[in-house]
Each structure stands twice: as C-alpha cells, then as structure tokens.
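Question thread 4412

I'm putting together a teaching handout and wanted feedback from people who do this every day. The idea is simple: show students a protein as raw sequence, then show them the structure tokens that encode its fold, then repeat with a second protein so they can compare. Below is the first pair exactly as I plan to print it.
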Amino acid sequence: MSDDKGLRGRATRQGQEAIGKVTQGMLENPVVNRALTAAFETRERATRAQELAMSALNLPSAGDLERLTRRLRSVSQRLEAIEDGLDRLEQRIERLGSSSALDKRLAAIEEVLARLEASLEASLAESAGAQADKARHQG
C-alpha cells in the first residue's frame, strides 16, 4: 500500500515537472509568446470596444456596475453603523427612563427630605424644651 502511494506520488511529481518544462518551453518560444501577447491585446481591445459601444447606448459597463456595487456596499455599511448608533442611543434613553419615572424618583426624594426635616425639627424642639426645663429646675 505504501509502495502504491510512493509510486503514485513520484509519478505525480514527475508528471508535474514534465508539464512545467513543456509550458516553460512554450512560453520561451517567440512564436507562442507573440501569439499569447496578441491574443491578450485583442481581448483588451474587444473589451474596450464593448465598453465604448455600451457607453454610446447609455448602458453601464461591467466596471460601472462594479463601482456602483462597491459604492452601494460602502453606503450600506455606513447605514448599518448609523443604525447601531441609534440602537445604542435608544438603549441609553431607555436606561435613563421616561420623564414620569424621573418625576416619581424626585417626588420620593422630596418626601424623604420632608420627613428628615420634620424629624430634625422635632428633635430640636425636644432638645430646646429639655434645656428649658433643666434651666427652670436649676434656677
């Protein structure tokens, strides 16, 4: 089994090397090189002619569509960022509570302060009364 894998691997490597040598030889051949160069130049000219024809017909080219797609993705990402920011702002507002909740909280604080004030006044009155009684008993 390992001989099969070794033989297969060796055959694959040798095949790849042979294909690489043939390809390299073809690319180094001036006739093949000129033919490939001419084919690529023809393709570029055909693409440019197609773009010009589409432009003359007021139709978008593939490049125009690609630019539009990139721009649309950019706008979409910005919109998502704005939506995320609005969601965070909404959550913060909800955490702060509505104005009625704040009003209730302030009313509760005022009530506690009024009780403290009444308690303090009562304590001061008791203290003043006790001091007056003490002064009368001493005098």
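The second pair follows. I'd like the answer to focus on this one:
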Amino acid sequence: MQFYYGEQNILRALDEAEFWKHQEAEHAGLIPVVTPGLEADYTQKLEQFGVEMKHMNAEAVKYIQSIVRSRGAVSHQLKAQMLEFIKRCVDQSKSFSELMEDMLQNSVAVRSSQPSQTVIHHMIRESQYFIGIDQLILGHV
C-alpha cells in the first residue's frame, strides 16, 4: 500500500469507509436473497446492519465533503471526530463479519446451501480487507 496521501491519509480512510459501507449494506441485503429459508433472526439482524451501514456511508460522505470544502484544512477536533468515526466503521465491519461467521456455523439454511456459503465467505474476505486497510491507514495518520 502506498502512503503518498501524506496528511490526507485520513481522506483515504474515509474514501475506503464510504465505499465499503456501501458494499456491506448491499451484502447485508443480498444474503437473504441467496439463502432460501434464512432464519428470521438472521434476516432481522442483516436488515439492521444494512440500515446502519447506509447511515455510516452517508456520514462518511459528509466528512469527505467537509475535507474537500475546507481544502484539507481540518481542525484537530474535526480530525479527532473523523478518526473516531473510522474506528466505528471498522468495529461495525468486525461485528458484521462475526455475524456472517455465526451464520456459516449455526444457520441451517446457510449450511444447506453451498452457493450461500461461497457468497458469505467472499463477503467476509471483503469486510476483512476493509478492516485491514483502514487499520493500516489509521496507523499512519
């Protein structure tokens, strides 16, 4: 990974958060579609994740717009808020990955569907990519 963003590494982290929160919201909606008979508890949790991820995506867009409007001259207070937001995004992705791991282990519907298992494994890898990339970026902010 390149760190040529310099002082703008936080913008890179926000760009990643915006993209991956959108992706994860789509993933949360796709799992019930590709998993016939998915248990209601999992479906409800996925719907809630989808809503929360859409909110996080919108918040990421607002932070990015703030940086662009300020031409990168971000106050220490706003930068601290952005860093906390990015950490919340990472934590949310960790929780989402844990839910998907739980479905792989405990959902009869998922265990009965090889396509569902394949899709969920792929989604977990994508969430883990986001977690790793933003944690790496945070280490250089």
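Top answer:
Good format. For the second protein you could add a caption like this: The mean pLDDT is 91. The chain has five helices and no strands.
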